[in-house]
Structures are given as C-alpha cells and as structure tokens.
C-alpha cells in the first residue's frame, strides 16, 4: 500500500495562514474603529445642530446674555472634538493602507506555498501511479512466466 502524501512545508504554511488571519482581523478592527469614529462625528454634528436650534429658541425667549455666551463655547468644543476624531480617522486610514499591503503580502506568501504544495502533490501522485503500474507490470510478467512454466 502506498504511503500518504505529506507536504514538507505544512508547518510553515500553517504559520503563514495564521499570519494572514491575524492581519485580516487587525484590518477588520481598524475598519470598525473608523466606522465608530464616523458615527460619533455624525452624532456630534447632530448635537451641534440641536445646540443652534436651542440657541435660537432661547434667544427668542429673551434669555440672560451670560447663558447665551455658553453656546459658542459649546459649539467650538464640539467642532474641536470633530477635528480630533477626523485626525484619528486619517491616521487609522494610513494604518489601514499599511495593513492592506501587509495582507496582500501575507496572501502572496500563502499562495506561493499552496502552489508549491499542489506541484509537489501532482509530482508525488504521478510517481505513485508510475510505481503502481510498474508493480502491476511486474505481477503480470511473473504470472505469464508461471503460466509458461506449467
């Protein structure tokens, strides 16, 4: 019975596949973080709109001037918060590009090993079939020789 095919670089292939999965996971976390920040910016923009509406409503009702001074500072703080989050998004997008390149390289490394494994398997299979055919031919020759001898 022929022995089973074993890829010599299977351990290395598993390491490369693990690296690819890890990079995919890291990339997913970055994408998720970017989306969360964008959602936070949308919420802050809504808060700014609500503050403007509140300011106009309060000023129409004749509110105290000291109270009305609060709104510009509040809105300015919210805009600074948006700027900070946009800067974070920018840096995360740069990290995301680095991770995409890293993922592309990791996929390439895995693909090289997969192709090598496939080539080796095809060669092993061909050699196994050749040996099996030789064994069959030998058995047929022995059988013919035995039949001639009787």
What does this molecule look like?
The chain has helices spanning 10-60, 65-149. It starts with 9 loop residues before the first helix and ends with a helix. The chain contains 2 helices and no strands. The radius of gyration is 35 Å and the shape is rod-shaped. Helix content is 91%, strand content 0%. The protein has a domain at 14-115. The chain has 150 residues and is an all-alpha fold.
Q: What overall geometry do the principal axes of the alpha carbons give?
A: rod-shaped
> Stretches where pLDDT falls below 50 for ≥5 residues?
none
Oligomer: single chain
Count every helix, treating DSSP H or I runs of 4 or more residues as helices: 2
Structural class: mainly alpha
Straight-line N-to-C gap: 30 Å
Which structural traits does this protein have?
single chain; 150 residues; mainly alpha; rod-shaped
State the gist of this model.
The chain has 150 residues and is mostly helical. The protein contains 2 helices and no strands.
Secondary-structure map with pairings?
Layout: H1 10-60, H2 65-149
């Amino acid at each position: 019975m022929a022995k089973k095919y074993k890829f010599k670089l299977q351990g290395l292939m598993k390491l490369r596949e693990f690296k690819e999965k890890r990079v995919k996971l890291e990339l997913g976390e970055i994408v998720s973080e970017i989306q969360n920040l964008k959602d936070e910016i949308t919420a802050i923009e809504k808060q700014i709109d609500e503050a403007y509406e509140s300011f106009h409503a309060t000023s129409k009702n004749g509110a105290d001037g000291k109270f009305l001074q609060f709104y510009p500072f509040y809105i300015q703080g919210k805009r600074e918060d948006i700027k900070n989050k946009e800067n974070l998004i920018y840096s995360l997008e740069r990290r995301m590009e680095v991770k995409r390149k890293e993922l592309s390289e990791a996929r390439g490394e895995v693909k090289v090993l997969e192709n090598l494994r496939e080539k080796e398997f095809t060669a092993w299979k061909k050699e196994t079939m050749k040996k099996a055919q030789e064994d069959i031919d030998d058995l047929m020759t022995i059988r013919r020789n035995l039949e001639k001898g009787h």
